[in-house]
Amino acid sequence: MERKIIKTADGSVTIHLPEWDEHYHSKHGAVQEALHVFIKMGLLHFIKKTSKSQVSVLEIGFGTGLNAFLTFLESQKLQLEIKYTGVEAYPISTEEISALNYAEKLSVENLSWVLQKMHDCPWEVQNEISENFKLEKLQKKFDEISARDGFDIIYFDAFGARVQPELWTEEIFEIMYAALKAEGVLVTYSAKGSVRRALQKVGFVVERLPGPPGKREMLRATKI
């Protein structure tokens, strides 16, 4: 499927799939969306709630590595020990990686090597990105995840239900529920009623939260 690099409203880039008219991140701002949905409402919420300094994160849709990069930056700022697992069935190309401008837009050009290392490091093994940030990338489909009680946070960043409804079902969310530890949280940019109901059906307690720029709401689900 054809993929095009485009610039979003905050100046950061994302990937557009013309055939589906689908974007890897919000066209209203890739960095803004990721910071709001996954860092503020996910990671920082969990840290504030639990006071944990060691956190395990599962990302559904590793994609451009933006969410992993932002989580790395927070780990350095807050002195967190992060074990990060990114699942991606279709990794992006070397050419696409070279077009990513996240370090520049975040004014951390001196750390551009981190995002490059995240993409260059081998799949299916744990890699040490820094002393307190370990990354494992798994090339598989989301329904092949078999983790049990292994993660504190899930960044659910799959393509939207409009184009891939099979990724937003009770069956998928049962896998997510099983993968989380008790009191773990799942955050997603989606606010669809069908998604909220599917999350509730498998046992999550679900909150509607203010969304990122260009989106009214998002969802956070907690495993009780």
List keywords for this structure.
single chain, 224 residues, alpha/beta, Rossmann fold
Describe the structure.
The strands form two sheets. The chain has an eight-stranded mixed β-sheet with strand order 6-7-5-4-8-9-11-10. A three-stranded antiparallel β-sheet has the order 1-2-3, with no helix packed on it. It has helices at residues 30-50, 66-78, 94-98, 102-105, 112-120, 170-179, 193-201; strands spanning 4-7, 13-17, 22-23, 54-60, 81-87, 126-130, 133-138, 151-156, 180-188, 205-210, 217-222. The mean pLDDT is 97. The chain has one domain (28-222): 3-Layer(aba) Sandwich (Rossmann fold). Strand 8, helix 6 (170-179) and strand 9 (180-188) form a beta-alpha-beta unit. It is built from seven helices and eleven strands. Helix 1 packs across helix 2 (66-78). Helices cover 32% and strands 28% of the residues. It has 224 residues and is an alpha/beta fold. The longest helix is centred in the first third of the chain and has 21 residues, at 30-50.
What is the makeup of the main sheet? 8 strands, mixed
Number of helical stretches of at least 4 residues: 7
Q: For this structure, what is the CATH homologous superfamily? A: Vaccinia Virus protein VP39
- The order of strands across the largest sheet is 6-7-5-4-8-9-11-10
Task: Specify the CATH architecture.
Answer: 3-Layer(aba) Sandwich
| Broad structural category | alpha/beta
- Based on CA atoms alone, the radius of gyration comes out at 16 Å
Shape summary: globular
- Tally the beta strands: 11
Any idea of the CATH class? Answer: Alpha Beta
Q: Please trace the helix and strand order, writing H or E for each element.
A: EEEHEHEHHHEEEHEHEE
Helix content: 25-40%
Intertermini distance: 39 Å
Which fold does the CATH topology refer to?
Rossmann fold
Low-confidence stretches: none
Q: What is the total number of structural domains?
A: 1
The averaged pLDDT comes out at 97
Work out the strand percent: 25-35%
